[in-house]
Design a protein that fits this description.
about 425 residues; mainly beta; 2 domains; 4-stranded antiparallel beta sheet; 28 strands; WD40/YVTN_repeat-like_dom_sf; WD40 repeat-like protein; WD40_repeat_dom_sf
Length: about 425
């Protein structure tokens, strides 16, 4: 036998590492001695965990799956939004802020409309501007008096320009404008040289899967009902309402429970029964009526925004009488400059809360559940003026000076 063969036979055979339980002595030796030692130990025994304990192959696989699952859930965790989130919009000449609108579908963005008909879209969940969906003015001189949303279709009303109404369907695709061919509002000859032409205010009525209905009030003192098929918005059906106001229509709101339209010509309030086409004598007001709100859940409640230094909101309960009676309550905020708010300023309702921003940047939230003791629930001061205030997804959102501001905790305290 050769020396090489003899040396090979005398050499101790290497023991193969097998997935077998450790002996008592090995267990004592493999007790937890800290991360560095245990990591080295794992290189020699793959069935040991980082603490020196035996782990079966099935347990190791389940741990890995659990780890991947926890990482995936961490990636999908909703990021906590800041208390106040500002979303600046592009500034344009004559592009004053007009309306901030909320489509009916929760997955669609908010729509900000400027005086020159620029449309910007803001993601309401993550609160950022959708730059690729920006829809600036196409280069046509237009003046937006008012805008509303009917279902998922935004309606723009103009007092000047080639059209009086423009539709803007809000979808997940690229937005587009659809100009209506109808021009029902005709200014009287004595007003033909003034800026008071075309539409002055809008009011949403109803939206179904295939059509939308709304009202337009004009400087010509007339009100029209519009019915449009969603597939042919450029050719709506326009019907005149049997109400002729004493001056231009300043505000409107539809009451769905009794199928009536509440309208104003600044100092008078009209209630038109659309079923009977009848309008009784109007109620007189001492202050200009700029906005009308019918509570969406409690239709017998109507809130008016009027021109007053201290009490800009007047609430009426139809169960206690008509508009010819005193309001149930009045409340408001006195501007720091002691000036009247612009007529375009508009607030928003949410259950028993009313939120309204002001020209000096102050946003106030009132709780009117007790009409004898209206509570100022929250008050905050922004750095820019506020024209329109809405409540979207239980968040107060303001629009003014080309900035959309989300007040994410305004309703939570």
């Amino acid at each position: 036998m050769s020396l090489r063969t003899l040396a090979r036979l005398q050499r101790p055979r290497r023991r193969e590492l097998k997935s077998e339980p450790l002996s008592r002595e090995q267990s004592v030796y493999c007790e937890d001695r800290g991360p560095p030692f245990n990591e080295v130990l794992q290189l020699y025994h793959p069935n040991l965990d980082r603490h020196g304990s035996i782990v079966s192959l099935r347990s190791r696989r389940s741990q890995r799956a659990s780890s991947l699952s926890s990482e995936s859930s961490a990636d999908q965790e909703v990021v906590r939004l800041p208390v106040l989130k500002r979303v600046p919009l592009p500034k344009t000449p004559y592009g004053r802020s007009r309306r901030l609108l909320i489509p009916a579908s929760d997955n669609l963005p908010l729509v900000a409309i400027s005086m020159r008909a620029d449309a910007q879209f803001i993601n309401r969940q993550d609160q950022f501007r959708l730059t690729l969906n920006s829809l600036p003015n196409p280069g046509v001189q237009q003046h937006v008096e008012d805008a509303c949303v009917v279902g998922d279709i935004v309606v723009l009303g103009f007092n000047s320009g080639p059209s009086q109404v423009t539709f803007l369907p809000v979808t997940t695709k690229a937005p587009r404008r659809i100009d209506s061919k109808a021009l029902p509002h005709v200014s009287p000859p004595r007003l033909s040289g003034s800026s008071g032409e075309g539409v002055r205010c809008l009011a949403a009525m109803n939206a179904t899967a295939g059509s939308v209905e709304f009202f337009t009030g004009g400087h010509d003192r007339r009100i029209f009902k519009w019915s449009a098929d969603t597939q042919s918005l450029e050719e709506p059906t326009v019907t005149k309402i049997g109400a002729f106001l004493d001056s231009g229509v300043s505000a409107m709101a539809y009451r769905h429970d009794d199928n009536s339209l509440v309208s104003s010509d600044t100092k008078k309030l009209y209630v038109t029964d659309l079923t009977r086409s009848h309008t009784p004598s109007p109620a007189q007001f001492s202050n200009y009526v700029n906005q009308i709100h019918v509570h969406p859940q409690i239709p017998h409640l109507t809130l008016l925004e009027v021109r007053h230094l201290d009490h800009q909101i007047a609430m009426f309960d139809r169960r206690m009488g008509g508009f010819d009676k005193a309001p149930c309550c009045t409340f408001g905020y006195r501007n720091a400059n002691a000036k009247f708010e612009p007529s375009y300023t508009k607030g928003g309702m949410h259950h028993t809360f009313f939120a309204r921003g002001h020209h000096d940047g102050t946003v106030v939230l009132w709780d009117f559940r007790n009409v004898k003791n209206i509570v100022t629930k929250r008050q905050s001061r922004l750095t820019q003026e506020v024209v329109h205030t809405v409540v979207a997804d239980s968040r107060v959102v303001t629009f003014g000076d080309s900035v959309v501001t989300f007040l994410n905790d305004f309703l939570r305290s």
